[in-house]
Amino acid sequence: MRIERLRLRLIRLPLVAFFETSFGRVYDKTFVLVTLEGEGVEGLSECVADVDPYYSSETNTTAWHVIKEFLAPLVLGRTFKDPRHVFPALARVRGHNMAKAAIEMACWDLAARGQNVPLSRLLGGTRDAIPSGVSIGIQDSHEQLAQRIETELAAGYRRIKIKIKPGWDIGVVEMVRARFGSIPLMVDANAAYTLGDAAHLAALDRFGLMMIEQPLEYDDIRDHAELQRRLDTPICLDESIHSVRAAEEALALGACRIINIKPGRLGGHGESVRVHDVSATNGIPVWHGGMLESGIGRTHNIHLASLPNFSLPGDIAASKRYFVPDLIEPPIEVDPDGMVRVPTGPGIGVNVDWDRVAAATVEHYEVKA
Ligand code: SMG
Ligand code: MG
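That is the input. Now the predicted structure with magnesium ion docked in place:
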């Protein structure tokens, strides 16, 4: 496929409810929507950078700048035989994985549409539905958290993840276990602790959590390996796994027993499939993370999560937990048994409501080869 045109749209959507992590609370979602055109076909993707550099160092502004000035010239007018060649073609630019992923993932959608097959087929997906979990942010009270959990369990979700931070951790998990018994439960700290908190974190062992996600620094591997030696609870790495090399290092050092895959963090689908494969070879299960994506990014995630080693429920929930209306029609739904269907149409296989996209667009840019 030859890439002939690139369009960027800065989109702003209100969230149905606020979302709070150890680094702060958000009320809306602003992201860069990327469209690539080639040979009469369009590919779409969503950049998962945020307004602020708190989850990662990238922001919408850095992604916009890097795509426009540095990545667009590397793909416009070029022909790619395979979307796997796109990430290596961007190697001259260091870092900026979220910006790179936005370009790379749009190329996958373009390629799949060009071949008239669902994206999951091109990626090597083997399942037609994926198990879905939910991520519940930090709440104002235990009571509010309990209500949220009750709602999500009733909706059928297959595991509950709660965000923790110092002061909102052991007592909260204790409350959840007391009220909801042995539900599939995990916690995500978004790097809020240090190795000095090892004894404190070990107090979580008695609750039989599925895993603790990213307890330590966002770029750390070594301390996580030390912490894993001191914990019974499996560690899952998110932020730290920004490349195939980081994944190999984490597995070699025993820094985690589970990996969260987010294509935005890794530079796209190609690198995500490689982390998926290297984890499988090492007997390490993976699951698909979420970045509060609209239906467009979320659908990319669903296709990727159809690969076989995504054996744990992911953070890929229904559209209505985040956006009403979503940018796609119909929205993503979760079955009463907690499964999400993998779309079967060409590419990401969903209908974008372009009127809604237009209404939510606050900035626009376009460039041709
Ligand atoms: O998309 O359902 C979702 C959110 C899942 O908790 C979620 N994501 O660290 O895993 C994580 C967080 C990062 C998002 S906050 C910017
Ligand atoms: Mg996380």
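The radius of gyration is 20 Å.
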